[in-house]
Design goal:
The chain is mainly α. It contains nine helices and six strands, in the order E-H-H-H-H-H-H-H-E-E-E-H-H-E-E. The strands form three sheets. The protein has a two-stranded antiparallel ribbon. The protein has a two-stranded antiparallel ribbon with strand order 2-3. Strands 5-6 form a two-stranded antiparallel ribbon. The longest helix is centred in the middle third of the chain and has 15 residues, at 112-126. The radius of gyration is 17 Å and the shape is globular.
Length: 226
Amino acid sequence: PEINSIYEIGSITKTFTAILLTYYADEGKLKLTDPITKYLPDSVAANKELQGITLEMLSNHTSGLSRLPDNFEFHSSDPYDPYKDYTQKYLYEYLKNCKLNSRPGETYAYSNFGVGLLGSILEQVSGKTFEEMVKEVICAPLGMQNTEQRLTITQRQRFVTVYNEDGKTTSPWAFQVLAACGALRSTVEDMLLYLKANMTSSQTELSKAMELTHQITYNKDIKLGL
């Protein structure tokens, strides 16, 4: 495939979400230590289980939230495209009564749901969609022209065929409220620009935000940045 073929980049998306978090923290729009309850409707924030979770914990997978919510499969109409029907309504529905698997901040446990929730909170803070934030804060300054959540008609012609574990053609995944955990598509060329920016220090706001995501925030059985 050519350097401009477009792929689903899956959970590499989470690194973009972390950068958005630190970018808005640097701008003073939020703090990494903010409790998530500050950004949830009162009826949801009333769940005492959620009290100790901070934005940072959503990003470094130490919130105690499950990998995926209990009501995820219940609201998934297509096993080959599982995230497309999961909306904010279902996210709040789950959070209202959910129980954590561990105390916030104590244990690392990978959570697609946690990073998806973080993206939803960042959308509230910025007043923009996840895709708009990614393009404005990260892609435009770095000249990444083929990193998108939703592809244009011309970009679709460069999108690679997707296969399942049996080697059969399958559909790419669409995302709603949990987009921040895995919705982006990109090219090798854009990924090299992104990698270079993460490895090269400059005085830009974006570079400072990237450096902040590399700082160790959890250091027990595993070392994690954001």
